[in-house]
Amino acid sequence: WRDANYRDVIWSHVVQLVEARLDRLLVGYGPETLDVALVPFYTTRLAYLGGQAQQVDRTHNILLEALVTSGLLGLAAQLWFFLAVLAFGLAALGRLRTASQRWLLYGLPVGLGVALGLGTRLVSGVWTWSALAAGLGSVAGVGAALWALTRRRPAGEPSLPRRDDALTVCLLAGWLGHFAEAQFSPSAETVLLYVW
Asked: What is the pTM of this model?
């Protein structure tokens, strides 16, 4: 439970940071600055859970990390990039052909993410768990969109998959898995380098 408590404390301190400096909400604090920006909110509980020699430099949530380092603009860009890669893969599979299908792929993850994030805030009364709820809502939205896009084959499509379909599906699954995993883990530079 120590890790769950640690993340809860980190997220609550990061939310305090965001709420205290609304002037930074649009563009954030910049990359690799969380440890400096969080100093005024550093408490003994955070020091106890993280170790006194360790300073918090990651939010352990990709959405909070984007919000703090690059603001709402960076968060929107990161979500767009994630969904654009999925859209490209689905288009390669022939599953994303119309504008309405693209709206479905973009709309369900964003809609469910916002709904779960705000719903968590309304139920709990605090923003601490809203980023996690929004991220998991986005993953559920992608799952719902994928189900809707792949439940029946378009007319005239062969019943057997093409040879490269398996590779595309595996890459899309890895991409979605990374996003789900990044809701709980710190963003290491090597992972970010490979993603971008």
From this structure: 0.83
